[in-house]
Every structure is written in structure tokens, then in C-alpha cells.
User: What shape does this take?
Amino acid sequence: MSDKNVQEVLIDGRIYQLGGYESQEYLQKVGVYINNLLDQMKEMDSWRKLSGDERHVLTQINIADDYFKAQDRIIQLEDEALSKEKELYELKHQLASLRVQFDEQESQLAKKNQELAAAARTIQEQTDYLTRQTAGAKRADKKAGNKGKSAGANKSASDKKQEDKKRDQTAVSGDRTKAAGRQELDQDRSLDAIQMSFDDLTINANAGMPDGEAEVRKNNE
Assistant: This one.
């Protein structure tokens, strides 16, 4: 046990020696409290009318009043502290529950992320496959188009050759027809010329004969 402390304290203008196991600062605080309480009561109009004993009793009553009020305040604070402690306990419980839920949601989120990553890879693979298929189809269409153009060009060239051949044949046939016509015309002209020469000879021959003989020959002709 610590030593007992003795402290001189000024109370209501007189010096008292207070002793206790508390510190000297605490004993001085007690003296200050008593002086403040006496100052408050001296401001009362009825204080001057009271006797010394009545003043002592009134002082004790006010001290007891402060004491019980302090006790009530302590109980109230203890109740509030207990309530806060319960709230703190509930908050800790809720925090623990939220942590569990957070861990579960985090695990589910990680699982979802893995599923999304797998789905993204699948989509990318499908996209690459469709891209390759589309590119192959475009190349095939382009190749088929080039073949079609080539076939069309060959067909056009063949048709052109046939048309040129037909035109040549037509031209040759026309030339032949024209040549035959010219030949026939030349033959007709030759026949006409021969006929004219024959007529001229006949005329000349008749001119050198007697008239009766010429008529007879002519008739014979």
C-alpha cells in the first residue's frame, strides 16, 4: 500500500489539512470543488438567513446531490458503453459475415472471369475460323469469276472467228457469184459479137451475088 498523503487545502477562507492515499493534485481538486459549491450557495438570497449548522447541512445536501447525479451519469454512461459494445459486437459480426460474403463473391467473380476468358477464346477461335472461311470463299469466287471471264473471252474469240469465217465465206461466195455473172456477161457479149460478125459476113456475101440468088439463099437461111 502507498503512503498516505497530507495536503493543506484552502476552503472557504480557512486552511485545512486533507489526508488520503490519493495524490496531492486530487486533494487540491476536492478543495476547489468545495469552494465552487460554497460560492454558488452564497449567491442565494436565503444563504445569509441560514445558521451555520443549516449551511453545513445544505452544503452536504448539495454534495450528496452532485454525488448521486454523478452516479446516475456513470450508470448512464455504463449503459451507453454497454450498448455501444453490443453495437460494436454486432458490427463485428456483420463485418465477419460481409467478409465471408465478399470472399464467396470474389471466388464466384474469379470463376466468372475464367468462364468469360474461355468464352472470349472460343469466340476468337470462331471469328478466326469464319474469317478464314470467308477469305477462302472470296478467293474461290474470284477464281471462278476469272475462269468465267476467260471462258467468256475464249467463247467470244471463237464466235468472232466463226463470224469472220462466215463473212469470209459470204465474201468468197459473193465474189464467185460476181465472177460467174461477169463470165456469163462476157460470154453473152462474145456471142453477140460472133453473131454480129456472122451477120456482117452474110450481108457482105449477099451484096456480091445477083439479086435472085441472094434472095434464094436468104430464104434458105
